[in-house]
Amino acid sequence: MASYSIAEYKKMIGASKPKRGSKRPKVKGEKVQSEGEAKLARDLKALKIEFEQEFKFHPKRKWKADFHLIGKMILVEVEGGIWMEGGGRHTRGKGYIGDMEKYNTATMMGYQVIRFSTEQVKSGLAVQQIEKMVGDLG
């Protein structure tokens, strides 16, 4: 009977390490909705605030906002990965710089951009602030 190390066995069967921070399966070209995005969508529906998700706001760039409040020129982002060990995409240099460019461009196009952490969405703070903002706009 042959004996193999774990590394040799994994190599034989083609097993690979899962990517760090990768918890949800992804289908190529399809974004898997985060827990925070799913909750915020439910909260907005409950308040009858019209929105669209994965809203492509720029005519040339591939930028998308997590939420666009229809008729309000408001984009909402749910920032995940803030507390991940080593930081998530939004808190590491390149991702952070890219987000600044995206949000500044959206603002220059006339959108108001509001950002929330997943924890703020879960606590209800995000939907409270969105409700107040939408109510103040009339």
Written account of the structure:
This protein has helices spanning 6-13, 35-46, 93-108, 118-123, 125-137, and strands at residues 51-56, 64-69, 74-79, 112-117. It has a single domain (33-137), classed as Endonuclease, Chain A (3-Layer(aba) Sandwich). It is built from 5 helices and 4 strands. The mean pLDDT is 83. It starts with 5 loop residues before the first helix and ends with a helix. A 4-stranded mixed beta sheet has the order 1-2-3-4, sandwiched between helices. A hairpin with a 4-residue loop joins strand 2 and strand 3. It has 138 residues and is an alpha+beta fold.
Q: For this structure, what is the CATH homologous superfamily?
A: VSR Endonuclease
CATH fold assignment: Endonuclease, Chain A
Distance between the termini: 76 Å
Q: How many beta strands in the DSSP annotation?
A: 4
What would you call the structural class?
alpha+beta
Side-by-side strand order of the widest sheet: 1-2-3-4
